[in-house]
Design brief:
The chain contains 4 helices and no strands. By secondary structure, the chain is an all-alpha fold. The protein has a single domain, classed as Arc Repressor Mutant, subunit A, CATH 1.10.10.
């Protein structure tokens, strides 16, 4: 059985971490690409989180805002 390397394992990000990145992207002090590099996250993932906040349908968004336990 092959052993998973650190880079092969999926990472899980907390709702608070995602919310922080989205809020920082709205401040526009750094570009989304710069934010992604700063936090070692894929740029497309950050754009997805921003889109999910704008739509407001994702569970993590409601959790980050304290609307769901």
């Amino acid at each position: 059985m092959p052993v998973l390397k650190q880079s092969d394992a999926r990472r899980a990000f907390s709702a608070e971490f995602k919310w922080q990145l989205v809020q920082e992207s709205k401040e526009r002090t750094l570009s989304v690409s710069e934010l992604a590099r700063k936090y070692d996250v894929n740029t497309n993932q950050v754009f997805r989180w921003v889109r999910e906040v704008n739509v407001g349908k994702a569970l993590w968004v409601r959790r980050a805002k304290g609307e769901v336990d």
